[in-house]
Amino acid sequence: MKTLAIGKAAAATGLSADTIRYYERRGILPRSERADNGRRRYDQSAIDVLLVIRRGRDAGLPLPVLTQLFCKGGAKSAVLRAQLSDIDNRMTELQAWREALAQALELPSRDATELITQRLRDIVPRAPRRRR
Questions:
Q1: CATH 3.30.360.10 fits 4-69, yes or no
Q2: Beta strands of the chain (E only): which ranges?
Q3: Which of 35, 38, 89, 104 is the most exposed place for a label (fewest CB within 10 A)?
């Protein structure tokens, strides 16, 4: 089976080598195989895990939730259910924004602002997200 050095794994996944090492230290990514010279080597299954993590992070999923995807244990269900609920709420909010913005394109600027304010008033404001 072909394996990649950490630099090639980083290039293949769009993550930095430091990030890959961090995920390995945290136990999100299983400990890599080592070449005879002691350097890390990553097989396709490790690359796949890294791609899922990167895509999840790009989509705004918090690292603890992504960690739960790869852990063994019963707490996984509750964490993933909570994340599904959060995603549903964000999708509802984004759909409301999309509809309001699409309608606003058809209106003069002042009317567009009023329309957006009116349409989005009922959406419960969420706490600001923490930056990664």
A1: no
A2: 4-5, 33-34, 40-42
A3: 38
